[in-house]
Structure formats: structure tokens, C-alpha cells
């Protein structure tokens, strides 16, 4: 079974919305406007590109990333990697042609079936709603979280507010940085 890894920039109060400056959110760009940049805190981002063998996105994140990431040197390893977009509305005509093989999945059952295929880890970027559904369905195996020392209040959250049984996590990697960022890598105990 393939490992599904959720990776996120998250505020201390759980917000993941618009970390890079996407329009429509009053705190957009909070990852670079409000915290000093330390390259060592982002080492995990380069590692993710080397270790992942596929990327999974929700429709909104796909529509935000696909016009930009294919031409960014920082994300060169993702360009050639197979991508899967979970969407009930996206069509083949909506996919960009310069970002490698992309497959549309229509449900969380399709994601569960993808996890059963041969291959290495699948990384989930952005995709707040998708992350909530994947977590609630027990499909996420690992979290790579860069926690920013900010309280943003309102905004899309990484975790749902669904009333569910406790989900135990095991801390497998942790580091704190001089700028207040914390790297937390958790395995989900299934």
C-alpha cells in the first residue's frame, strides 16, 4: 500500500488558507510576510520532492498551482511526477498540458484505490477540504507540518470539526527554528 502524506504550512491555530498570498483571504501571504525566512526550516520541502512519487490535489489547489508551478525551478521535480486531482467538476479540458500526466479522481474511494496500487509515497499539497475528507476517511498516513508562530483566527483549517473517534499520531521527527517555526512529522497510527 502506498503512503499518503499530507504536507502543509499551518498557523498555530490550524489555519492553512492562502499561505503564499492567494487572493481573497485577509491574511494572505502569512508565511513570508510575518515570519523571518530561514532556509533550514524549509529543508523538508526539498526532501518531499525527492521522496514522493505522485502528487494529489483538490480542484482549488490544482487551479491555483497548475498555472504557476510547472515553470518554477523550485518545483521542477513535481513537473514530471504523476498528478491526481480529486474533483467532481473538473474535466480533461480543464487540465494544463505542461505539467505532466494528470488523472482526475472523482471520489475518496478512488483515492483509496490509488493507495492500493504499486508505487511510492503520494504527497498532498494545499487542498484544505480534501485534507479534511482524507483525514476523516482514515486515508492519510503521515503529516509533514511546518507550524508558524501565528494566530490567524478565521480561515480554512487543515483538520475538520467532524465529531469522530480519536485519531492517534506518533511524532517521528521534530525541530524548532530560531524564527519560531516548528517542523512536526507525524505518522498516523492506524
UniProtKB/TrEMBL annotation:
One of its GO terms (molecular function) is 5-amino-6-(5-phosphoribosylamino)uracil reductase activity. InterPro entries: DHFR-like_dom_sf, RibDG_C, Riboflavin_Biosynth_HTPR. It comes from the Bacteria. One of its GO terms (biological process) is riboflavin biosynthetic process. It holds the Pfam family RibD_C. SUPFAM superfamilies: Dihydrofolate reductase-like. Coiled coil: none annotated. Residues 2-182 form the Bacterial bifunctional deaminase-reductase C-terminal domain. PANTHER family: 2,5-DIAMINO-6-RIBOSYLAMINO-4(3H)-PYRIMIDINONE 5'-PHOSPHATE REDUCTASE, DIHYDROFOLATE REDUCTASE FAMILY PROTEIN (AFU_ORTHOLOGUE AFUA_8G06820). This is Riboflavin biosynthesis protein RibD domain-containing protein. It comes from Streptomyces viridochromogenes (strain DSM 40736 / JCM 4977 / BCRC 1201 / Tue 494).
